[in-house]
Design brief:
The structure holds two protein chains of two kinds.
Chain A: H1 3-7, H2 9-33, E1 49-59, E2 65-77, E3 84-87, E4 99-102, H3 107-142
Antiparallel strand pairs in A: 1-2, 3-4
Helix pairs in contact in A: 2-3
Chain B: H1 2-42, H2 52-71, H3 73-79, H4 85-118
Helix pairs in contact in B: 1-2, 1-4, 2-4
Classes of the chains: A alpha+beta, B mainly alpha.
Chain lengths: ~140, ~120
């Protein structure tokens, strides 16, 4: 990391937070869009997806590791929540008894997640803005 | 349109760079003259470390590379090389901050130069 890069490490951390939250928002919108998808290439209805975050570590010269940001490391499928089964004999994917498996996506829950992701995004933007303000304030010393 | 904006910014950058280089040269020549005077008076050669202009041009180089990184941003944006919206804003702001600090250093340098020139010998 060059000298100038090091100065902006706070900015890059906040920026990585923005990238991660955007990945989360992408997955949530995927879930909402597919809330009624009853057939997928893997077979069965669409399964709800979740993002897992992990810290970005940087190895220091002293051997210690330092956290320099966050990243969305993995998109996992939700196997804990079961598919909902509804009675709809006219549905093309209905089985012999007229039952259809619909995705384990709860739109209300996804909307709540979306709000929380948006707020987290806003928080990172605010952190970013405050970092810039701090740097500009320090410049006032020289003026 | 995007190209034109980028061209304009590169022209402005070149002009500012040229001005800073000129200042660095001036500072260097002043330093040399001062060293000459000092050695003439004391009869010994002043130690030549890393000259001030070298330090300055190193700093300018670091800021310059940052600004150069931003220059291709408009093209990156329209050709889809930028993966996130905020990436553009963050890189712009980083270059802006770096440039502001460099500008302040340059201003201080010119102030010092003027102060020296005003000195009555």
């Amino acid at each position: 990391m060059s000298g100038l890069e090091k100065l902006f490490s706070g900015m890059r951390a906040a920026s990585s937070g923005l990238t991660a939250e955007r990945a989360r928002i992408d997955v949530i919108t995927d879930n909402i869009a597919n809330a009624r998808t009853t057939r997928t290439p893997e077979g069965g209805p669409y399964r709800r997806k979740l993002v897992r975050f992990e810290p970005i570590l940087e190895r220091l010269a002293s051997g210690f590791k330092r956290v320099v940001g966050v990243r969305a490391s993995k998109v996992e499928e939700d196997f804990a929540t079961p598919f909902e089964r509804i009675y709809d004999p006219s549905h093309p994917d209905a089985d012999g008894e007229g039952m259809v498996s619909i995705p384990n996506v709860n739109t209300v829950m996804e909307m709540a997640d979306l709000i929380s992701a948006m707020r987290a995004y806003d928080a990172n933007v605010t952190a970013q803005r405050n970092f810039v303000r701090m740097a500009e304030r320090s410049l006032d010393i020289a003026r | 349109m995007v190209n034109r904006i980028s061209n304009g910014s590169s022209l402005a950058r070149e002009a500012i760079m040229a001005a800073i280089r000129k200042q660095a040269q001036n500072a260097d020549s002043i330093q040399k003259a001062a060293e000459k005077i000092a050695s003439a008076q004391t009869g010994e050669v002043a130690p030549t470390g890393r000259s001030f202009s070298n330090l300055l041009s190193d700093g300018v180089g670091a800021v310059d590379s940052q600004i150069k990184g931003v220059e291709g941003l408009p093209q990156d944006l329209v050709t889809g090389k930028v993966e996130d919206f905020h990436e553009v804003a963050v890189r712009l702001k980083q270059a802006d901050l770096g440039f502001k600090f460099a500008l302040e250093v340059r201003n201080k340098l010119i102030d010092a130069y003027r102060e020296v020139m005003r000195m009555s010998v």
